[in-house]
Design goal:
The chain has 82 residues and is mainly alpha-helical. The protein has one domain. Helix content is 33%, strand content 7%. The protein is built from 2 helices and 2 strands; from the N terminus they run ββαα. A two-stranded antiparallel ribbon has the order 1-2. α1 packs parallel to α2. It is globular and about 35 Å long. The mean pLDDT is 87.
């Protein structure tokens, strides 16, 4: 149904389960969406797929990736700019 499939040039990404479906719909319908949940639940994967879909359909002009400027209490390893 509408909002559960994110279309990209390479493949369609299907939201799995009610929380991912709600997340995918929110990203499509709202200006700002926060994805909160444990690691491995698809937050980043779905967000990037939705961003690529928006870029492909000319809904946005560019995608801007950001990261925290301060350490969040855990060392993530080497990051560009370190």
């Amino acid at each position: 149904s509408s909002g559960t499939v994110i279309h990209t040039r390479r493949r369609d990404v299907r939201a799995r389960g009610p929380n991912q479906i709600a997340y995918a719909r929110a990203m499509r319908e709202q200006d700002l969406t926060f994805g909160v949940g444990p690691a491995g639940t698809g937050k980043t994967y779905l967000a990037v797929a939705a961003a690529v879909e928006a870029l492909d359909t000319d809904s946005v002009r560019r995608i801007v990736l950001v990261r925290p400027a301060v350490e969040a209490g855990e060392k993530l390893g080497f990051l560009p700019g370190d």
